[in-house]
Amino acid sequence: MRQIKSSSPLKGEITIPGDKSISHRSIMFGALAKGVTSVRHFLEGADCLSTIGCFRQMGIEIQKESDGRILVHGKGIRGLTAPAATLDVGNSGTTTRLISGILSAQNFTSVLSGDASLNSRPMGRIIRPLSMMGAQIKSLHGNGCAPLQIDGRMDLHGIHYDSPVASAQVKSAILLAGLYADRETSVHEPALSRNHTELMLSQFGADLHTEILKDGSAEIRISPCEELYAQDILVPGDISSAAYFIAAALLVPGSEVLIKNVGINETRAGILKVCKDMGADITYLNQNQGAGEPTADLLVRSSSLHGVCIEGTVIPTLIDEIPMIAVLAAFAKGQTIIRDAAELKVKETDRIRTVTENLKAMGADVTPTDDGMIIQGGKPLHGAEIHPYMDHRIAMAFAVAGLASEGETTILEEQCVDVSYPGFFEALHTLTV
In 3D, which of 349, 365, 347, 329 has the Cα closest to residue 247? Predict the structure, then answer.
């Protein structure tokens, strides 16, 4: 467990770990490419290490250099070999869903399984479209969850899929299977979800196009691929990890924090828009565009925040940051409404339930709804015992809440933050002393 006390002003600068989504993809696409892909600023969190482990099991040499670079010795789009044992995906939903698209097109059978949390998450959302392409995927317990047995097929066919949700994981699984299909594959989603897959696959040489339609929906098309080619990747700082330091600097009076090299991809950085709408003082410095991913240094100063309504097309761009946004809302003046976020129920925990439970424990006025929550902000919060239920984002969000609350907050199961941010508590401490 970890004790958090109310904080004096936060000062200084911090460089956050590499983006988790981009780190995952750099390993996957590097493994499928010809040549050696070099990855700098890779996130060595538990989830991304699960991806490395899976591809090593399928014959890909992946090494860490003394300067911190990860080298992926790709074997080409048809270079994977059958694993000798079950592929252990740990707690990583990204690994599970994206790799399923790749495995569907191999010439071998594989089994994916993870920890108890991962094996309780729904996988039907990828099983359905991949099966439409001819994939043979079976939930071994018959409940639509992992363990999944995937009997690879060399004759997948391209489809057009109307996705009911804007989900980068669903879209990516289909696009990755589409690399191997007999004709073009397209995905239509109600709003453009995170587009890291599209940007990086294009960089590796895939023929891929995105169109934003008049109604705000998006259509992504990919052609069958003969070969991908190794790249040098610089992973930007993870906006999801930056979110906790942004929030801490906004909430603790007198704070001023510079967060270096943060990815600000517009399909991902909805929290910045919401913070601005709430009255946050955030300045963008040193904006850059590298490898298709925009970055900036963020200068954040403590601010008086007010409630907002968060809904619609912005939700896919901040879905992982909603626990942190809910904490911000509890300290803001007035009412904040979060809706259209039913996706929260199928994360590492049901985050509507876990956020509500822990905010109430700290004295907040919060009402859960079917697709979000209503928060009456402005009440002073007090320390409490926080149950993250092994959900890293809950643990980190409420650690920040503890900095701005009266008394002492205890975070149980603190080790769960290692999934995405090893060293998080130590990094937070450097700004609070």
Answer: 329
